[in-house]
UniProtKB/TrEMBL annotation, chain A:
Compositional bias per record (Low complexity), positions renumbered to this chain: 1-18, 335-350
Segments passing through the bilayer: 47-68, 114-139, 146-170, 176-197, 239-264, 287-309
Domain ABC transmembrane type-1: 111-309
Protein name: ABC transporter permease
Organism: Isoptericola chiayiensis
InterPro entries registered for this protein in UniProt: BP-dependent_transpt_permease, MetI-like, MetI-like_sf
From TrEMBL, chain B:
Superkingdom to which the source organism belongs: Bacteria
Keyword Transmembrane among UniProt keywords: yes
Family matches, as Pfam families: BPD_transp_1 (PF00528), BPD_transp_1_N (PF19300)
Subcellular location per the Swiss-Prot or TrEMBL entry: Cell membrane
Family: Belongs to the binding-protein-dependent transport system permease family.
Protein name: ABC transporter permease
Alphabetized CDD domains for the sequence: TM_PBP2
Organism lineage string: Bacteria, Bacillati, Actinomycetota, Actinomycetes, Micrococcales
Membrane protein topology class: Multi-pass membrane protein
Species, as recorded: Isoptericola chiayiensis
Length: 356, 347
C-alpha cells in the first residue's frame, strides 16, 4: 500500500499514538514519514525504494487515462488496425499482443484494475475480519470456538484455490469490469479475513483482561463502548503492517486468478495475469514482449508493497520503537516480522544484545 | 528408562488429540467446497448448459441425482468421500479418483524437486544472511528473497522458458518427457507415474537425462519461490539463536565460527523452521498448479486448470478437496515431527 493509503486508511490512525509521535513539524509525525525518519541505512533504502515503487504504481493507476497511449481494448486507430504480435516500435513501445492490443496501454490500464482490486479487497477484509475478531474475542463462548476453527481451516486452505472457487461462485468465472473487480476482490477478501480475524482476536483476548477494561466494566460502561473505545483502539495497532503485506498478496492472487482464466474479460478491463496467460504460447515462439512487460509490472507493484510492508514490520516492534531514539541501534534492528514469521517475534525478544 | 513410558504416553496423547483435530478441519473444508460449488447451480448445467436442449439437460441432471434435496446430495457426497468415491468427471467421464491416481504422482514429483532446490538454496544462504546480518550479503539475499516472493511463479517460469528453452535451446519447452523416452518407458513396462523412477527402470541413461532436462526448469521455477520463503525463515530463526548465551559460551571456548553457525545455532532454530516450512505446503501446491500450467507438466495442477477451462466442477471439486486434505494431513505430520524433535511442544 502507498503512503497516502496508509495515512488515510481506516486502520492506520491507531498505529501512531500521539504520545509516541515526538516533537517537530506536523508532517514529521505522519505515519510513514515518521518511519522513514526513524530508519537508517539498508532499512531506509528498502523503505524508500518500496515507497517510490508504490507511488509510481498509484500514479500510473490513477493517471492511466492520460498515460496510456491507447485504450485497453483498442484495436485500431483511424490509420488502421494495430496488427497482432507486432514487435516494439515507435507507435507501440511495448509491441502488440496476439489479440492485437497495445501492450503498453494494457500494462498501464492494468495498474488501475490492480489498484481497485487491492483497495476493495483490503478494505473489505479489514471490516469483516476486525468486526468478527472483536466480537468473537470479546464475548468468547462456543461461537468463538467455532469461528476460530473455521478461520484456522480457511487459513490452511490453499489461498488461490479458495479464490478460484469464490470467483466461480461470484461471477461464474468471467465478467464485466466492475463485476470482475468485485469478484476478484471478494475472492481475495475471503482468503484474508482469517488473518485479520486471528490477529485482532488474539489482541482482544489479551486486552480484555487488562485492568483498564475491568475498570471500565466496574464503572458500568456498556459492552459496546468498551469494545469500541477501550479494546478495539488497542487491538488494531499491527493491522497496517498486515495491510501492506496483504496488498502485495492481493496483486499476486489477482494475477494468479487471471492466469488460470478467472480474471476479467479483456474487453472489460486490462488485467496483467490474463495477459500473461495469453503470452504463454507467444513465449514458445520467441515473442518476449507480451510476457515481459505485464510480468514486470506485477513484480514491481508486488515488490514495492512487500518492501514497504517488511520495512514497516521491522520498524514497528514496540520493543524496538523505544530504541529508535538511538539511530545507530535502530538501523540494525531488523530481524522481526510480525505478520509473516510467527517465530520472528520471539527471536527478537530473545535477542537483546543488539549492539554487540 | 523409568521415564520412558510416561514420555511415550504423553506423546501418544498429543498425537491422538492432534489427529482428531483433523476431522473437523477436513469436514469444514469439504463442506465449504461443496457449498461453494453448489451455490453456482448444478455442475451439469455449468458444464454443458447451452450445448444441450433444456430437456436433455433435465434428463442428465435427474440421472446424476442433482435434482434431489441439497442435504441428501451433501450426505451422499460425504459418505462417497469416506469410501473413496469423489464422483465422475463430466467433461471426460472418468472417476475423479482415477484422475488423482494418474496425475498425483507428477505433482508429487515436481513438489519434491522444488523442495530439494529450496533446501539446497534456501538453507545455506539463510545461514549466511543471518551470520552476515545487516552487511552486504544479507542485504543482497534479503532483496533477492523479496524478489522471489514478489515474482508470480508463472512469470518466473515464462522468463526461464524464454531464455533457456527458446533462446538458448538448452532445455525442452514443455512436458515431462519426450516421445522417444515415453515409448522406451512403455516398452520397459514402467508406469509408476514418477518419471525419474520410470526412466531408471528403462536402464537407458539417455532417457534419464531426457527426463531430467524436462524437469529442470519447472523444478527451478517452483524451487526459487520456495527457496525465498526458506531463506527468510532460516535467517529469522538463526538470528534468534545466534544471539543466545550458549553460542557466546561456545565461541569463548574456541569453537570455530563455521561450526557455531552450522551446529550450535542451527539445531535449536530447526524446530520453528520445520513447523513453518511444513505450513508452506499450501503455498507449494498453489505454486505447483501455476508451474504445471506454465510448463504443461501433466500433473494435478495442469489437470485442474484444464477442468476449470472446461467448467467441469465435479472434477474441480474433487481435486480441490484432495489438495485441502493433503494440506491438513501435512500440517498434522509437521506437528508430530515438531513434537518428536522438541519435547516442549507436547505440553
Amino acid at each position: 500500500m502507498t503512503a497516502p493509503e496508509i495515512a488515510g486508511g481506516p486502520g492506520a490512525a491507531p498505529a501512531t499514538p500521539e504520545h509516541l509521535g515526538g516533537r517537530g513539524a506536523w508532517w514529521r509525525r505522519l505515519p510513514v514519514v515518521r518511519q522513514v525518519r526513524q530508519s537508517v541505512g539498508l532499512q531506509r533504502g528498502m523503505l524508500v525504494a518500496g515507497l517510490v515503487l508504490c507511488a509510481v504504481f498509484v500514479v500510473t493507476a490513477v493517471g492511466a487515462r492520460w498515460i496510456a497511449p491507447y485504450g485497453w481494448s483498442q484495436l485500431r486507430t483511424p490509420d488502421g488496425t494495430f496488427g497482432a504480435q507486432q514487435p516494439p516500435s515507435a507507435e507501440h513501445w511495448f509491441g502488440t499482443t496476439v489479440g492485437g492490443y497495445d501492450v503498453l496501454s494494457r500494462v498501464v490500464w492494468g495498474a488501475q484494475t490492480a489498484l481497485l482490486v487491492v483497495i476493495v479487497a483490503v478494505l473489505a477484509s479489514i471490516v469483516v475480519g476486525v468486526l468478527l475478531g472483536l466480537v468473537s474475542g470479546y464475548f468468547g463462548g462456543w461461537a468463538d470456538r467455532i469461528l476460530v476453527l473455521v478461520a484456522d481451516a480457511v487459513y490452511a486452505f490453499p489461498s488461490l484455490l479458495l479464490a478460484i472457487l469464490l470467483a466461480i461462485v461470484i461471477s461464474g468465472g468471467q465478467s464485466s469490469m466492475w463485476g470482475g473487480v468485485l469478484a476478484a476482490a471478494l475472492s481475495i477478501t475471503v482468503v484474508f479475513v482469517p488473518q485479520y480475524f486471528r490477529v485482532v482476536r488474539a489482541e482482544v483476548v489479551r486486552i480484555k483482561s487488562e485492568a483498564f477494561v475491568d475498570a471500565a466494566r466496574v464503572l458500568g460502561t456498556p459492552h459496546r463502548r468498551i469494545m469500541t473505545r477501550h479494546v478495539l483502539r488497542n487491538s488494531v495497532r499491527t493491522l497496517p503492517l498486515i495491510v501492506t503485506l496483504n496488498a502485495s498478496e492481493a496483486i499476486l492472487t489477482l494475477a494468479g486468478l487471471g492466469f488460470l482464466g478467472f480474471g476479467i474479460e479483456p474487453t472489460a478491463a486490462a488485467e496483467w495475469g490474463y495477459d500473461l496467460q495469453r503470452a504463454v504460447a507467444d513465449v514458445t515462439s520467441g515473442i518476449w514482449w507480451t510476457a515481459l512487460f505485464p510480468g514486470l509490472a506485477i513484480v514491481l507493484a508486488a515488490m514495492g508493497m512487500t518492501l514497504v510492508g517488511e520495512s514497516l514490520n521491522d520498524l514497528a516492534d514496540p520493543r524496538l520503537r523505544v530504541r529508535a531514539r538511538n539511530r545507530k541501534v535502530a538501523g540494525s534492528v531488523a530481524a522481526t516480522s510480525v505478520a509473516t514469521a510467527p517465530a520472528g517475534e520471539s527471536s527478537a525478544a530473545a535477542d537483546p544484545k543488539e549492539d554487540s | 528408562m523409568a521415564a520412558a513410558p510416561t514420555a511415550g504416553s504423553a506423546l501418544g496423547r498429543y498425537v491422538l488429540v492432534r489427529f482428531l483435530l483433523i476431522i473437523p478441519t477436513v469436514l469444514i473444508l469439504v463442506t465449504t467446497v461443496f457449498v461453494l460449488m453448489r451455490a453456482t447451480g448444478d455442475p451439469i448445467t455449468a458444464a454443458l448448459g447451452g450445448r444441450l436442449t433444456p430437456d436433455q439437460l433435465a434428463e442428465r441432471i435427474s440421472a446424476a441425482g442433482y435434482d434431489r434435496p441439497i442435504l441428501v446430495q451433501y450426505w451422499e457426497y460425504l459418505t462417497g468421500i469416506l469410501t473413496g468415491d469423489f464422483g465422475t468427471t463430466i467433461s471426460d467421464n472418468r472417476p475423479v479418483t482415477e484422475v488423482l491416481a494418474t496425475y498425483g504422482a507428477a505433482t508429487l514429483e515436481l513438489s519434491a524437486y522444488a523442495v530439494l532446490v529450496a533446501l539446497v538454496l534456501g538453507v545455506p544462504f539463510g545461514m549466511i544472511a543471518a551470520y552476515r546480518r545487516d552487511l552486504l550479503p544479507d542485504a543482497v539475499l534479503r532483496v533477492l528473497a523479496i524478489l522471489a516472493y514478489a515474482t508470480p511463479v508463472f512469470f518466473a517460469g515464462l522468463l526461464l522458458k524464454l531464455i533457456f528453452s527458446v533462446w538458448l535451446g538448452w532445455f525442452p519447452v514443455a512436458g515431462r518427457v519426450s516421445t522417444g523416452g515415453e515409448i522406451a518407458m512403455r516398452q520397459a513396462g514402467a508406469d509408476s507415474g514418477f518419471m525419474l523412477v520410470d526412466a531408471f527402470a528403462t536402464g537407458d541413461p539417455a532417457v534419464v537425462l531426457d527426463v531430467l532436462t524436462h524437469a529442470f526448469l519447472p523444478a527451478l521455477t517452483l524451487g526459487l519461490l520456495t527457496a525465498g520463503v526458506f531463506l527468510r525463515l532460516v535467517r529469522t530463526n538463526m538470528i534468534g539463536t545466534l544471539g543466545t548465551e550458549y553460542v557466546d559460551a561456545a565461541r569463548s571456548r574456541g569453537v570455530r565460527e563455521r561450526r557455531l553457525v552450522t551446529a550450535h545455532a542451527w539445531r535449536p532454530a530447526l524446530i520453528p523452521i520445520i513447523t513453518v516450512a511444513g505450513m508452506q505446503i499450501a503455498m507449494l501446491l498453489v505454486g505447483a498448479v501455476l508451474t504445471e500450467t506454465t510448463f504443461e507438466w501433466r500433473g494435478l495442477g495442469f489437470q485442474l486448470s484444464e477442468y476449470l477451462q472446461a467448467r467441469d466442477f465435479v472434477a474441480v471439486q474433487g481435486i480441490v478437496v484432495v489438495m485441502a486434505v493433503v494440506v491438513a494431513v501435512t500440517n498434522f505430520l509437521v506437528d508430530v515431527i515438531a513434537a518428536l524433535v522438541d519435547p516442549r511442544v507436547r505440553f
